[in-house]
Structure formats: C-alpha cells, structure tokens
Design goal:
This protein is α/β, with parallel strands linked by helices. It is 40% helix and 15% strand. The protein contains 14 helices and 13 strands. It has a seven-stranded mixed sheet, with helices on both faces. Strands 10-11-13-12 form a four-stranded antiparallel sheet, covered by helices on one side. The chain is globular, with a radius of gyration of 21 Å.
C-alpha cells in the first residue's frame, strides 16, 4: 500500500506551539510549514485512525490499564524490529519518555547527586537534572568531521566520581543523529557497571534508523547490563502519536521496578495512560510496519536533498551525518553570523523555522536542527528561500 505523504493539515490555532510560532512571520494562506518541534507533518497512518474511530464508537472511554494483548504487541514489536526478548511484566506505563526520565532522576538519585549527560543533548534532559536539584555532569561529545564521537576518557573519569549516580543515555542521539555502534554501547556499559552508575536509556527514536545503520537496544548487550538499566520507549516519534501521551518504560530489574513504582506514589500514584493511546500504539505495532518503512524512505530522500544542496550552494553550512531520527543537525557558523542574528534572518527573511541549536546547550550556538519528516516539496521550497537570502 502506498501512503499519502503529500497532504498537509495546517495546525494553526490547534494548540500546536510549533505552528503558532509562525504567526508573526507567515500569513495563513502562505504554503509554509515549520521544521522545528519533533513531530511529523505527515498524516497519521489510516490503520491507526480506523482503530481509534472504532474504539470511540464502540467503547466506554473510561479508565484503562494496558491489556494483555497490548503488552504482547509491544513485546512482539521489540522482538521483530530490534531482536529484544522483552517481557510484559517489565513494562511500566508513562505519559511520555520525558516524564519517565524526570521520574528516574527523582527516584534513583538524591539532591546533589551527579547525573551525566552527553552534550549537546535534548534539552529536557538538562531540566530533569537541574530543576530537581541534581548536579549536571557534562560529558561533551567530540566532533569528528561530519559526526560526533564519545570522549571515553572523560566519560570514565566522570563516571568514576562517587557522586555520579545516574547516566541518561540518548540513543539514538538527539540532536546529533548518531546511532551508537555496539562497541560504543559496550564500552559505556562496562564503565557504568564498574562504577555502579545506573543507566536510563532514552530510546524514543529507536525505530527511526536510516538505511545502512542499526539501532541496538541498550538492555540487549548482556544480562548484567539488562539488570542495570531502564529503557524508555514510545510509539510517539515513530508513528507521530505524541498527543496521545502513551509510552512504554522497560525496567527488567525487579528491585529497580519496585523502587520505581514506590517512587511514583509520591508524584503520580495512578500512572494510567490515555485509553486511545493504548489503542493507537497497538494498532501501530500490529499493522503499520509498512507505513514506517515508507516514512524512513521519505526522510532519507529529504536528507539527501539537503546534503546535496548545501554541498553545492552553501558549503559554509556543514551538515552532519544522519544515522537515526528525522532531525538533521547543521553547523551554520561558517556564515559568520551571530546565532541570534541567524535566527532572525531565518525567520524574517528566509521564512524557515528550525529548532535553534542553542536550546541544546552552549555547544549548539550557531547550529540548527531541521525536522525532515514532511513532504519533500516543502524541503525543496525552503532550500530555495535559504539560497535567496544567503547565497
């Protein structure tokens, strides 16, 4: 089946911050879309829409826990797509992955404890650490040509500090687009096990892997590693379901799982998810693998278009390899423009709206993150507007 990746539903006045940010710069009748916040400008898979309609028409929309069929679908998806033999009893509900790593910081660490991040990184992770009174342990990624790598000497030195209790792994990494290789994950795991650092692995983008690359679920490295981690997943990025607020948090270690549930009593004692979110996730995992495969093809097409354009027309702008996610990381500093002026020119003159790199930390100043999950024609048109302003 060929899916519709051309139709756009403009989301002005729907509560979409992403679209509302266009209002000062773009007239509603202009055919311009944002490339910022990480949801897709693609229509939801019809199989998911049909499942939601059927549930709404034939069910009572009351409180609901995940059913055995739901948990089975989630585990089957993990096995078929990632080779992970996850068990239903490991799954704990959460409205979102962000909620989960905030909860993990509060449950598994104490005020003043160190929590390590590999930066630049997804900005809510900074808030999970700092807003909860923990100490940010910064392990900056190292740029190597068109990709980033881990500074393992620095990583081990900081993991060895007895105050470092937790490491939040962004895998695949947002915003730099890395799909970590097995040897990298094994080295992380070996260091964290040796120094008793618990790992919370945010794997929300685990399905969005570009051709030629592989995602390895952190918990699959070994049984010992499995017992020292929490793996955070959701269908929200994969199938554009973030508004349904349904995530699956895997805690294989029974003691850690009991501690997690005990900790939730202090902040979220009744952690049920959206009943339609359960329905949508199950329909996605049962029926929408083909939709996802076509989306990955579209993202890869859009990626090649952007890479080729900048290499030819504006080589001062450096584009990083996209191994995973649909979020392309770009270094615009070669234009010699202050990052605030860059933001102004993009909004007011080029009318392109990215996620500004500075929100991912000081290392991101002068960078942009481009959301490629949209019809190709919008990528083409945006490139021409960029050329008109900067070339």
């Amino acid at each position: 089946m060929k899916y519709d990746f051309e139709t756009i539903n403009k989301r002005y006045n729907t509560g979409s911050k992403k679209w509302n940010e266009l209002v000062p710069y773009v007239k509603p009748e202009e055919d311009i879309i944002p490339f910022s916040v990480a949801d897709m400008e693609l229509r939801t898979a019809p199989e998911i829409v049909d499942a939601i309609k059927a549930e709404a028409e034939h069910s009572v929309l009351g409180y609901a826990n995940p059913t055995d069929a739901y948990l089975s679908s989630v585990c089957r998806w993990m096995k078929e797509r990632r080779g992970w033999d996850a068990r239903p009893e490991w799954i704990l509900p959460a409205h979102g992955v962000v909620d989960a790593f905030f909860d993990c910081v509060k449950i598994y660490t104490e005020p003043g404890d160190g929590v390590m991040l590999m930066t630049p990184v997804y900005y809510p992770m900074y808030h999970a650490v700092l807003d909860n009174g923990r100490k940010l342990v910064d392990n900056p990624l190292v740029r190597r040509e068109s990709r980033y790598e881990i500074d393992f000497e620095d990583f081990e030195r900081k993991a060895a500090d007895e105050n470092t209790k937790l490491f939040i792994l962004c895998s695949p990494h947002n915003p730099v687009g890395r799909a970590w290789e097995r040897w990298e994950l094994e080295k992380i795991a070996e260091i964290c096990l040796r120094h008793n650092v618990l790992v919370v692995s945010d794997e929300i983008h685990f399905d969005l892997i570009m051709p030629g690359h592989t995602h390895i679920v952190y918990a699959t490295l070994s049984k010992e590693v499995e017992q020292n981690c929490i793996v955070c997943t959701a269908p929200s990025k994969t199938f554009n379901l973030a508004g349904l607020q349904t995530s699956n948090i895997f805690v294989p270690n029974e003691a850690l799982r009991a501690r997690y549930l005990e900790g939730l009593k202090r902040s979220n004692p009744n952690p049920k998810c959206n009943i339609l979110g359960y329905v949508a996730c199950q329909a996605a995992y049962d029926h929408c693998a083909g939709w996802l495969d076509q989306v990955i093809g579209l993202i890869d097409t859009n990626r090649k278009l952007v890479v080729d354009f900048f290499a030819k027309e504006l080589p001062q702008i450096k584009v990083f390899d996209l191994e995973a996610t649909y979020l392309l990381w770009m270094d615009w500093r070669g234009l010699g423009i202050d990052y605030r002026e860059l933001e102004r020119r993009n909004h007011e003159e080029a009318k392109v709206f990215f996620d500004e790199g500075y929100v991912f930390g000081a290392q991101g100043e002068g960078f942009e993150r481009w959301n490629l999950a949209c019809p190709t024609r919008y990528i083409e048109e945006a490139l021409q507007r960029i050329k008109a302003v900067y070339a």
